[in-house]
Design brief:
Helices cover 43% and strands 12% of the residues. The protein has 355 residues and is of the alpha/beta class. The strands form three sheets. Strands 2-1-3-4-5-6 form a six-stranded parallel beta sheet, sandwiched between helices. Strands 7-8-9 form a three-stranded parallel beta sheet, with helices on one face. The protein has a two-stranded parallel sheet with strand order 10-11.
């Protein structure tokens, strides 16, 4: 099986790390695991963050030129299908639908979102293109139930929707934590949702009893690092800012941490949850869309605020048996649903049926 792959928001070889780049690379690795040959069709970035109609027009011009280039490439004649990752109104696929029509091959999407409210306003042109691309897809793999809601609502007749659970780029589980270390938080430090999660962490820590024995390591950096540091300053040496960690160093932290503490404000799903649970860490978060797609067990409701998270932390910090029991359930969930073999089976089965 030979597929073209395209990620309009961020190519797999983009120099800046992000969840999008991680997922793009994971998809390629899963298809390789499933013995599917993948060619990156284009690295043209199609992204308008500001609703700039002039930028949209220029990117549409570049996409047309890229489409023409691809159709003259001999390798395009070997493709049996085209798969686009993360088509949405700020980063629509302006290439795949045209190429697949010209080649007469199926068009497939992974993790697309529908946003018909954007069909008016500054992103209208791009939103129309994103909707048209989703309409053209024969199959769409959805990653979270939140995305599935609008995909089901707006699906054209005959379109197949398939659940592809978020997954790690590994076929087996890492070593299990020995729970000897502090709590762990993992997240980029930038304005918006990530910063909101850090503020919730600080508000929760303020609610822990003074005599409770706790420590927290924070892995991550970014433009809001100073603000995060300021929020954590009242806790003194109990909170350690680790900065950005490489994969091996972060894995070492997972293998000694007691639990993962990350509220998950507006997370799409959050790779840190999967990484931590693979090492047997229980999670303290909030019951949010995205979070509930990957985290084992119920989490405190958003309406209960930091008080409920503080209560949950207190219980886990004082009960090693509960930590180990919840950690085992989390590890089993990742083993069953969120590793390469499961993702490869889902992709291979659906694509074979399509092709």
């Amino acid at each position: 099986m030979n597929l073209a792959f395209y990620a309009p928001l961020k190519a797999p070889d983009h120099p800046v790390p992000s969840g999008d780049r991680t997922m793009a690379r994971a998809l390629i690795k899963a298809m390789d695991y499933a013995e599917i040959t993948v060619s990156t069709a284009s690295d043209l970035r199609i992204y308008d963050s500001a609703g700039d109609t002039a930028r949209q027009a220029e990117l549409m011009r570049q996409a047309k030129a890229e489409t023409d280039r691809i159709l003259t490439d001999p390798k395009a004649q070997t493709w049996q299908a085209w798969l686009t990752y993360h088509n949405y109104y700020k980063a629509p696929d302006l290439i795949g639908p045209a190429v697949t029509r010209a080649l007469g091959i199926p068009y497939v999407q992974v993790e697309s979102t529908r946003a018909r409210k954007r069909l008016t306003g500054p992103w209208a042109t791009f939103a129309e293109a994103a909707e048209a691309a989703s309409d053209h897809a024969r199959t769409i793999f959805y990653v979270t139930e939140r995305d599935a809601e609008t995909l089901r609502r707006d699906a054209p007749d005959g379109q197949v929707l398939t659940h592809l659970r978020p997954f790690l780029q590994r076929a087996d589980l890492p070593a299990r934590s020995d729970y000897s270390g502090p709590m762990l938080s993992v997240g980029m430090m930038r304005a918006g949702d990530k910063l909101a999660s850090y503020h919730l962490i600080a508000e929760t820590l303020h609610r822990l009893d003074d005599d409770l024995d706790w420590r927290l390591d924070i892995a991550g950096d970014g433009p809001a690092q100073a603000e995060v540091g300021q929020a954590m300053m009242p806790f003194g040496a109990r909170v350690q800012m680790l900065g950005a960690l490489g994969a091996d160093a972060l894995q070492d932290r997972y293998e000694h941490a007691r639990l993962l503490f990350w509220p998950g404000v507006n997370e799409a799903f959050g790779y840190a949850y999967l990484e931590a649970q693979a090492a047997g860490l229980p999670v303290v978060a909030q019951d949010r869309p995205g979070v509930r797609d990957v985290v084992a067990g119920m989490q405190p409701a958003m309406s209960e605020g930091p008080d409920a998270m503080a209560q949950r932390l207190t219980g886990l910090l004082g009960d090693t048996d509960a930590v180990q029991t919840l950690g085992a359930a989390a590890r089993d969930k990742v083993a069953d649903h969120h590793l390469l073999p499961a993702a490869a089976r889902t992709l291979r089965t659906a694509l074979e049926d399509l092709i």
